[in-house]
Design goal:
Blueprint (H helix, E strand, L loop, with lengths): L1 E8 L8 H10 L8 E7 L7 E7 L7 H11 L4 E6 L2 E7 L2 H11 L4 E6 L2 E7 L2 H7 L9 E7 L14 E4 L2 E9 L2 H10 L9 H14 L4 H11 L2 E8 L3 E6 L8 E4 L3 E5 L15 E3 L6 E5 L4
Antiparallel strand pairs: 1-8, 1-14, 2-7, 2-8, 3-5, 3-6, 4-5, 9-10, 10-11, 11-12, 12-16, 13-14, 13-15
Helix pairs in contact: 5-6, 6-7
Protein name: N-methylglutamate synthase subunit A
Pfam family, one: GATase_6
Keywords: Glutamine amidotransferase, Transferase
Length: 301
């Protein structure tokens, strides 16, 4: 059992409050996932030719300044960076593939949690409230955010096994449920060039969507294919640079509720996670249909 929550802002005036609005939603899912928690927030975009990476190292006192200096001097890269608890966010003028290759060779213990122009992923082992406080969630700004609280059932309680999972540029996924065909799909996707960091079935779902998007699918087309190719029980919430989506499997045994106002769209495993949102008493509230996906997207810059 896990808890998932998401908030997509339609009103830009609320972007400075997204962390404040989202924090109680994440904490409300503690009973569904006390082992670990995490969230992906979209905002603070970098420009064309730049990428933003969320990086983590197992040593809490890792010298991020030294890594930044090496990238500047050895690779002649423009960059800026800041640290947020156990992670560092690097904004670099570079090609993704070349930078990934350099990090794999020169800093193999550094884990890449996300890459894109907008996304930052922050996750750790522990209670959701602790994770929210650790990363100062309440002060964050952005356009949309998705989160997850985990109760481990099929693998160990680790940071690597916590959600969200990202396998492509500005793409991430949180998942409540289990996939029955993830081992076969993982092998297929590896042959297609998709790489994985864990044995978690949810990461396979994220990798599948990355693959479909790389083949030219729109987000809606990728989700249509996912309904055909993913077997098991699942409720997904997906984030992209421009969008937010929710999808349920044909049996729909994993709970989910959606709420929409003129200002936002919100999703949660349980309605009680939505009760602190402004105007929720006047929202359109419904249960997502089985074998159905819902997508909200803004125009790309």
């Amino acid at each position: 059992m896990c808890g998932i929550v998401g908030l997509y802002l339609k009103n830009p005036e609320l972007e400075s409050r997204i962390g404040e609005l989202f924090k109680p939603m994440l904490i409300a899912m503690t009973d569904r996932g006390p082992d670990s928690a995490g969230f992906a927030i979209y905002g603070d975009e970098v420009g064309e030719g730049w990428i933003k990476l969320t990086l983590r190292h197992p040593e809490t006192d890792y010298d991020w300044e030294a890594l930044a200096t090496r990238l500047k001097t050895e690779q002649q890269l423009e960059l800026s960076w800041f640290q947020n608890a156990s992670v560092a966010v690097f904004k670099v003028r570079a090609e993704e593939a070349a930078l990934r290759e350099w990090l794999a060779e020169e800093a193999p213990d550094v884990l890449i949690l996300s890459v894109g122009q907008s996304i930052e992923i922050l996750k750790e082992v522990g209670l959701p409230e602790k994770i929210a406080e650790t990363f100062s969630l309440e002060r964050m700004k952005g356009s949309h955010i998705i989160g997850h609280t985990r109760m481990a059932t099929e693998s160990a309680v680790t940071m690597e096994g916590s959600h969200p999972f990202s396998t492509g540029m500005d793409l991430c996924l949180v998942h409540n449920g289990s996939l029955s065909n993830h081992n076969r799909l993982r092998d297929t996707l590896k042959r297609e060039g998709i790489s994985f960091e864990t044995q978690n079935d949810s990461e396979v779902a994220a990798g599948y969507l990355t693959w479909r998007l790389q083949k030219g699918d729109s987000l809606k087309e990728a989700l249509e294919h996912a309904l055909e190719d993913l077997d098991g029980f699942f409720t997904f919430t997906i984030g992209t640079r421009d969008g937010f989506a929710v999808m349920r499997d044909p049996i729909a045994c994993k709970p989910a509720v959606l709420a929409e106002t003129d200002d936002y769209v919100a999703m949660a495993s349980e309605y009680q996670a939505l009760t602190t949102l402004p105007g929720i008493e006047n929202a359109r509230v419904w249960e997502p249909e089985p074998a159905t996906f819902y997508v909200w997207e803004r125009s790309s810059n």
